[in-house]
Amino acid sequence: MLKDDHKTVKRLFREFDRADNGRTKKSIADKIVEELSVHAYIEEEVFYPEARERVPTTEDLVLEGYEEHHVVKWLMAEIADMSPGEERFEPKVKVLAELVRHHVEEEEEDWFPKVRDALSRTDLAEIGERMEKAKTKAPHTPKPQPAARG
Does pTM surpass 0.70? Predict the structure, then answer.
């Protein structure tokens, strides 16, 4: 499920790059913000806590993931409030794409395999069901919070 979300967002970033007018770019950017808001929510509410608890070798990766989400949410909130004619709109979306691509690469290459290796198919299916259920109550806009200290 998480990989499918990643594919969707990667496709949307490609569509943004190919779009030739501001209104289309804004529409695509809004969809990116919505998709990423839901995705971050289900990761933070279900997947990250489960990975951290059940697969201790992912703790540093989980903490880094929370911080990457924090930065992405602030950037998405700015993008959501911008019009496509603003000179920093497109550069902000491009920076968001770079951050998200980096984050996706780390998840898919570094720690999804660790979680898959450590958990049974039944455990993974249960986590997937909980994430699917969490999607129904996930926010569709970014909810940036002050950085956690710890």
Answer: yes
Confirm whether 31 is domain-assigned. yes
Q: Give a yes or no: residue 147 inside a domain.
A: no
Decide if 34 is inside a domain.
yes
The whole-angstrom separation of Cα 38 and Cα 142 is: 9
Average pLDDT, the chain: 93
Is residue 55 a contact partner of residue 32, using CB atoms and an 8 Å limit? Answer: no
Q: How far is CA 21 from the centre of its chain?
A: 25
Residues 15-32 pLDDT 10s: 999 999 999 999 999 999
State the alpha helices, DSSP H only, in the chain. Answer: 2-18, 22-42, 48-54, 59-80, 89-106, 112-118, 121-135
Tell me which residue of 8, 29, 37, 25 sits closest to 79, measured CA to CA: 29
Reported as a single tens digit per residue, the pLDDT across 53-97 is 999 999 999 999 999 999 999 999 999 999 999 999 999 999 999
Handedness of CA 95, 98, 100, 106 (dihedral sign): negative
Nearest to 34 by CA among 144, 138, 146: 138
